[in-house]
Write a structure and sequence with these properties.
DNA Primase, Chain A, 5 domains, five-stranded antiparallel beta sheet, alpha+beta
């Protein structure tokens, strides 16, 4: 659903964020704000701050932030539009526009012939499994212990060995050759033969259960490849579906979990073992659309890809995606068993499979096990990087048995003594602001070895943050940005500035933070969470002097000076990197650059 900015503004004007969050978790008043255990990470001490004055929340550990609608969206793992209605119900907000403005996607009539064609083809495949020629497919299913109930549940079929008969059937049912091509079954240039001919058919459905494609498995040794999958078509997009999703979406809340597997045979294996809540990726990659589908299930994700190296590497990659998405998850870990779930079922039976699937660990356990059992660390640099990677997580694990166990495993994986790891954990940690600025300097201000002065890097960041702070509080600061700056060098700050400019142009008023957060959330910006987190941090800073036109002009002067310096450095780098540059030219370029740098340093010290 998508609602107009005017309706959202009216809702937020009547919303108390404290009341909304109290409907989900306990909160405690602390001074002017309220505090709570953050539900978006494993919080042991209250780190979620709720500001009634500014109508925002912010976790100062995991960085999650937003307005009342954002909180509900993230907590219930629902879309922003759905969260609007939830908030309206909580605060008793009634408005006819909630019904009138509900977004209903227009039906694409051009796709109807394709759906009709593929539905008829699916029925044809199911019928062909029941005729004598289909016995080869039935025998294979019997060997894999797939019974008749599962054949019906998953709509398994068979494609006739003579691929022309499939096309003749569809043409006889008034489907055009164009429609047959567009569902990915045959090409006219290939004499219109079914690409799935002579294979076992597994239909692939969209989240609503509509068949959109097929995966066809070989039944004879001479057939290659092992699987033939539908190509991308107007109705089939592999990254937008999860196998068996339409069957599990009604049961996951009751079960409390869903297993994410590598292949659809694994889904059937779990079903056979009495675990029906499972979906499959049909590979080892997870797309943003699939993450959105998992979020809607509102349950724990249990990730289990194959035990081979490819599957374990895939799980390591997906851990990063699930962390970024803020989803609750655990991972199946059986380090000494390389079999996939279907293999375990066939070789050891359903009880063994249930036992294997119950071995669940958190991300840190899995990652350390990966370096212990799958990817051995070979060089000192690899061992150091892995050790430092885990240190930041171990700092958040309370001292005790769990931390000691992690340290022991990390020591074994990296070769570092346990005391050396403890020393790193207990080292003084820089402030969050300095840590953030350092990370931005590394990510976005990579100036090369020509510029080692970290202070000057921070000067630009601080000036841009201060300008943003003023823009959030004074309309005239926004005009200064448009007239005198135009754009910030740091991309995340520039994105926020553009949202502020759009806000003021559309509303003709100073920024109200919850409404600005709503604008960012509604823009379907892939960086929305980062922008909102950074925005709430800047809005909370209280160490800038009060706004004046002169103060804003001074900030603008710093930004211009720093941007000029960056341009100068980039040009110098290009000059000395030219293939035709001789040593004398390089020396002169570096000499001139050094002189300009000294002059700037003198100027900055005077300022």
């Amino acid at each position: 659903m998508a609602y107009s900015p005017e309706l959202i503004d009216a809702l937020l004007a009547q919303t108390d964020i404290v009341d909304v969050i109290k409907a989900y978790i306990p909160v405690t008043k602390k001074g002017r704000n309220y505090m709570a255990l953050c539900p978006f990470h494993d919080d042991k001490h209250p780190s979620l701050s709720i500001s009634p004055e500014r109508q925002i929340f912010k976790c100062f550990v995991c960085g999650t932030a937003g307005n009342a609608i954002t909180f509900v969206s993230k907590y219930e793992k629902i879309s922003y539009g759905e969260a609007v209605r939830k908030v309206a119900d909580i605060v008793g907000f009634h408005d006819d526009r909630l019904e009138k403005e509900a977004f209903v996607p227009k039906k694409d009539l051009t796709l109807e012939p394709l759906y009709n064609c593929i539905n008829d083809l699916q029925k044809f495949y199911e019928y062909d499994l029941s005729i004598p020629e289909g016995k080869i497919a039935k025998d294979y299913l019997a060997e894999r212990n797939i019974d008749e109930a599962q054949v019906k549940k998953y709509k398994i079929g068979y494609s006739l060995a003579d691929g022309r008969k499939t096309i003749e059937f569809l043409l006889a049912h008034n489907h055009s050759l164009k429609s047959i091509e567009d569902i990915g079954i045959a090409l006219a240039s290939n004499n219109a033969k079914d690409a799935n001919a002579g294979r076992l058919i597994f239909p692939l459905c969209d989240p609503n259960g509509q068949v959109v494609g097929f995966s066809a498995r070989k039944l004879k040794k001479e057939q290659d490849p092992k699987y033939v999958n539908s190509p991308e078509t107007p109705i089939f997009h592999k990254g937008k579906i999860l196998y068996n999703y339409h069957n599990v979406k009604g049961i996951t809340r009751h079960e409390g979990y869903v297993y994410v597997l590598e292949g659809f045979m694994d889904v059937m294996a779990l079903d056979k073992a009495g675990i029906p809540s499972a979906v499959a990726l049909m590979g080892t990659a997870l797309s943003s659309d699939q993450i959105a589908l998992l979020r809607k299930l509102n349950c724990e994700i249990r990730l289990c890809l194959d035990g081979d190296a490819a599957g374990q590497i895939g799980m390591m990659k997906i851990i990063t995606q699930l962390n970024a998405a803020g989803l609750q998850y655990r991972l199946v870990s059986n380090p000494n068993d390389l079999r996939d779930p279907d293999d375990i079922l066939q070789e050891s039976g359903p009880e063994a499979l249930k036992e294997a699937m119950s071995h669940l660990v958190d991300a840190m356990d899995f990652q350390i096990n990966y370096y212990l059992n799958v990817k051995k660390l070979e060089t000192p640099d690899e061992r150091r990087k892995v050790m430092l990677y885990f240190i930041r997580f171990l700092r958040n694990v309370p001292a005790g048995i769990d931390r000691d166990n992690y340290i022991a495993k990390l020591s074994k994986a990296t070769g570092y003594e346990m005391e050396a790891i403890r020393f790193q954990i207990n080292r003084k940690i820089v402030s969050k602001e300095d840590e953030e600025e350092a990370s931005i300097a590394v990510d976005e201000l990579d100036f090369s070895r020509l510029h080692p002065e970290k202070l000057l890097q921070k000067r630009l960041l601080r000036a841009e943050r201060q300008a943003l702070y003023y823009m959030l509080n004074e309309m005239s600061a926004v005009k200064y940005f448009e007239d005198k700056i135009g754009n910030f060098y740091t991309s995340v700050y520039n994105q926020i500035a553009n949202y502020i400019v759009d806000y003021q142009e559309s509303r003709k008023e100073s920024v109200t933070l919850p409404l600005l957060i709503n604008d960012i959330s509604n823009a379907n910006d892939e960086d929305a969470d980062t922008l909102i987190s950074r925005l709430t941090e800047i809005s909370s800073e209280r160490y800038y002097p009060p706004y004046t036109d002169q103060g804003m002009q001074e900030v603008i002067s710093v930004i211009k000076d720093e941007k000029d310096k960056i341009f100068d450095r980039e040009q110098t780098t290009k000059a000395i990197s030219r293939k035709d540059a001789d040593p004398h030219q390089i020396g002169e370029a570096l000499k001139d650059f050094a002189a300009r740098q000294r002059e700037r340093l003198k100027r900055n010290k005077k300022d």
